[in-house]
Q: What sequence folds into this?
DNA sequence: ACGGCTCTGGACCGTATGGTCCAGCCGTCT
DNA sequence: AGACGGCTGGACCATACGGTCCAGAGCCGT
């Protein structure tokens, strides 16, 4: 079904997904197919032409779109966490990104809307978290291999704890509007690694 | 309006809130007034008799009910975090509590449903986080005052980072079904404090 | 130029759901 | 005992929303 798409068709489909993402960021849970339709300048039939399985299929596409952006927005910093300075630059980008996002949580909204029942939504989030943590672990490994951390350092627990701190910091920011917890989690985490650092001669 | 409640009325109201909480834990977002009505063995008119402002008011009452349970479930451990052993006991209770809760997030659901727009929902969550963090800070202060941490220890950042780690760990558990991140955040956090500990003679 | 495909518009439908209303029950107070 | 007022049942309503359908426009290969 996707194979039959014309260039025009592909453009329309993309427009729908992007518009839907915007609407969802603004209206959250209460976003309706009609909102998306009017925002994207399409008609009801187009929505169901490109997403025959209905709303959930569209929301899933939006979720994938948003998930892709999460990691993209952290690049190129997330990809080269090999010095403490790089870690701090990345920290700043993460804080800035989520501060800019304000009190909306696109993926959270989508996840709650589509529901745990749908395996697709879960898969997207799980995959995002896995990749994210892998990047963090690669960063910890990089500083370790640079001789900044002892060879025996527990990379995976560190990456997992860092990821948890970020997620929690973002959650709390959504509730309170303050980025303090996200900052505390990142700073505390990075500082903790540095405390375990190999003293530089 | 609340003042005019008979003992019977108060009982019915409580039954409605508790039933609603159960239904929301099971059905999540898709919980409907009719589900709550049938689960609580009441009628539509009773729902609106006790919550004249409608569904949002009821959901808010449920949110308060759930928020109260969050901290209660961590007692008495959360209240006396004055030794490292106490911290570990508390850690186990937190992990057990959220593991038992499984992949449902009552407060998260409620928050997403009622929406950020409603000031009431936000206030409940903010208050919960504030109290929770205060307990953690009190615990850090307690071990510090017991001479286990240096007097200059940054209590507030530690408490904030710990809270963020918990929140994130729970979020990730909701998505993946695995408690690993919650455990990693707690263990890493407590270990970090112990690394800063005053050596015992 | 023509046949067939995709793409688009928009009227229409079924229904789930929050909310209203009113009649009658029951407890409680004097 | 009687009356007042909270308590309860359940029929009823309005409507928002996801989804269907069909007719026609527009593009594309042959």
A:
């Amino acid at each position: 079904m996707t194979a039959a798409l014309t260039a025009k068709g592909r453009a329309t489909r993309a427009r729908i997904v992007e518009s839907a993402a915007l609407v969802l960021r603004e209206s959250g849970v209460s976003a309706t197919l009609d909102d998306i339709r009017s925002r994207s300048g399409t008609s009801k039939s187009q929505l169901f032409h490109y997403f025959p399985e209905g709303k959930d299929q569209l929301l899933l596409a939006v979720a994938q779109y948003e998930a892709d952006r999460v990691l993209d927005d952290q690049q190129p910093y997330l990809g080269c966490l090999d010095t403490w300075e790089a870690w701090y630059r990345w920290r700043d980008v993460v804080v800035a990104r989520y501060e800019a996002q304000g009190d909306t949580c696109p993926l959270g909204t989508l996840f709650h809307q589509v529901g745990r029942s749908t395996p697709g939504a879960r898969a997207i989030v799980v995959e995002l978290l896995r990749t994210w943590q892998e990047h963090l672990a690669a960063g910890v490994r990089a500083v370790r291999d640079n001789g900044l951390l002892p060879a025996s350092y527990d990379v995976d627990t560190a990456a997992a704890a860092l990821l948890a701190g970020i997620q929690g910091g973002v959650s709390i920011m959504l509730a309170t509007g303050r980025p303090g917890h996200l900052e505390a989690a990142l700073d505390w985490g990075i500082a903790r690694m540095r405390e375990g650092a190999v003293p530089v001669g």
Notes: Residues 37 and 44 of chain B are 6 Å apart (CA to CA). The two ends of chain B are 62 Å apart (CA to CA). Residues 4-6, 8-9, 12, 42-46, 49 of chain B lie near DNA strand D (CB under 10 Å from a C1').
